[in-house]
Every structure is written in C-alpha cells, then in structure tokens.
Design a protein that fits this description.
It is a single chain. By secondary structure, the protein is α+β, with helices and mostly antiparallel strands. It has one domain: Aminohydrolase, N-terminal nucleophile (Ntn) domain (Glutamine Phosphoribosylpyrophosphate, subunit 1, domain 1, 4-Layer Sandwich). The chain is built from eight helices and 14 strands. The protein has helices spanning 9-18, 21-32, 58-67, 107-115, 120-128, 133-140, 214-222, 232-243; strands at 3-8, 37-43, 46-53, 72-77, 93-95, 98-103, 146-151, 154-159, 165-167, 173-175, 184-186, 191-194, 197-200, 206-208. The chain is globular and about 45 Å long. The protein starts with a strand and ends in a 17-residue tail after the last helix.
C-alpha cells in the first residue's frame, strides 16, 4: 500500500488557500509512505518535471508545485511492499506522455516483479504505456489496486479495492485520503475517471462533511475479511502491515482497536 494524489492547478490553488498542500503531502507520507516520493506535471497534454527518489522530500515537492505553471500534478509516496527500496522503483512511472502511480499490491505479480527486481506497478505500467484510454481502462480495472496517471497527456483515476477519495471542489482532485477536517467524498468500488467523465460500476459514494481517511477505509473494509471472495488472508495481512498507519507512527493506541 502507498499513498497518491492527482489534481488540477485550480484545485491545488483552492486547497492551498483553505488547508495547505504541504499539510496534505506530509499527511499522505506519514500515513503510508516514507520509502520514496515522486511527482510529475502535465501541461498542454505534455508531461514534464518528473522527480522521484528515496531522498526526495515533501518539502521539495511542495516547492515545485508552488513554482510551476501546470494543468495537472501527480504525487506518490511509497511503501515498498514489492521489490527493493531504490530510486528507480519509486512512482510515478513515466514514458513520453504516459504516467502511472498505484496504491495497492498485486500479489499475482509479486513473484515475477521480485525475480527481475522491479515493482508490480512497473510491470503494470509496461502493459498500458503509450496505449489509448479504452485499452488502459480495461487493463487497470482488471486489477485490485487504485491507479492515477496520464494517458496521451490526459489525467485518469481508477479505484478498485484501494482507498481513493475526491476533494469536494468543482474541479479535478483525487487523493488516497485527506487530513481531518477536509470535506471529501469516499469513492465507490470500480470508480473511474477518464476523458473527463466519471463512472462508478458499484455506487457506494459517501460524502463526508469532515474527512474520510484511509483509517476509516481499513476500519470499515477489513474488520470483516470474509467480505472478500479472493486472497482474503493476503488482503487482511496487507491492510494490517502496510495500510493501517494512522495512530502507529506517533505511538498512539487509540486507533488500533480493530486489531486488538
């Protein structure tokens, strides 16, 4: 599990004024990241400004976001669940005007990825880079994770089982979760945003007047692991080991009641 964000500059400007983008970047890294960060920008359907690495700080990323003129920005912070902690294994993965970042672990690809010391995310990107959005959609919705990225210079977001929320503004802003007090929407299973259209195959969207964090997602989604018909043990373990981070980094126990 990792954390990610994709947003338009208009939405970023609004969020910066209301809550502070650096606070969101730090929240995502603290919640389920810390093994490397990355970002890439898009303007006029061209990607630029790609940076990623183990030592790339959210402060440096924030400075770039505040300095550049862009249409969209993608941010990712990694937990190394598959393959080594290396700069090249950080997200996003990009080629020409295609880019991808992922939140989740695809267990079916883990052995193959480890054998070549690549990430499961990079193997998936190899399947969709430079393809059109319809092909990309078919591939990404066949997996369990959440994905954001660019196809032919246009942004997309796909939520399968992973956590993905939408900031409540009339523009483009998705993130794995948001800090306490930020109004956002929990997106339903099989949500997709492509070609500036949205769809949810199984609609369970819930509007939160305060916030919906990944802690809420894992408390709700994994307290009854039998709701999953596949990889139940792996999914439960992954949620515990990788995804359930709030309340752990500061030593707090008050958020740990689900597993104690």
């Amino acid at each position: 599990m990792c954390r990610l964000m994709i947003a338009s500059q208009l939405a970023v400007t609004d969020y910066e004024r209301r809550y502070g983008i650096l606070n969101l970047l730090a929240h995502l890294e603290r919640e389920c990241g810390g093994h490397g960060n990355g970002l890439v920008f898009c303007r006029d359907r061209k990607l630029f400004g790609l940076k990623k690495g183990l030592d790339l700080s959210v402060e440096t990323i924030y400075d770039d976001i505040m300095s550049y003129n862009f249409d969209y920005v993608l941010f990712h912070t990694r937990i190394a669940s598959v393959s080594s902690r290396l700069d090249e294994n950080c997200h996003p993965f990009a080629h020409e005007n295609s880019a991808l970042a992922m939140n989740g672990t695809e267990h079916g690809l883990a052995n193959a990825a480890s054998a070549v010391n690549r990430t499961d995310s990079e193997l998936i990107f190899d399947l969709v880079k430079d393809k059109n959005i319809n092909y990309t959609s078919k591939i990404l919705t066949s997996f369990d994770s959440a994905f954001v990225g660019f196809c032919e210079g246009k942004p997309y977001a796909f939520k399968n089982y992973g956590a993905l929320c939408e900031y409540l503004i009339e523009d483009f802003f998705f993130a794995s979760s948001f800090p306490e007090g930020v109004s956002c929407k929990e997106l339903g299973y099989k949500f997709s945003f492509k070609n500036f259209k949205r769809n949810c195959y199984t609609s369970s969207d819930k509007t939160k007047t305060s916030s919906f964090t990944s802690r809420d997602f894992f408390n709700y989604q994994f307290k009854q692991p039998e709701i999953f018909s596949h990889n139940e043990d792996d999914t439960w373990e992954e949620a515990y080991v990788e995804g359930y981070r709030e309340g752990y980094r500061d030593g707090s126990k008050k958020e740990r009641h689900v597993y104690e």
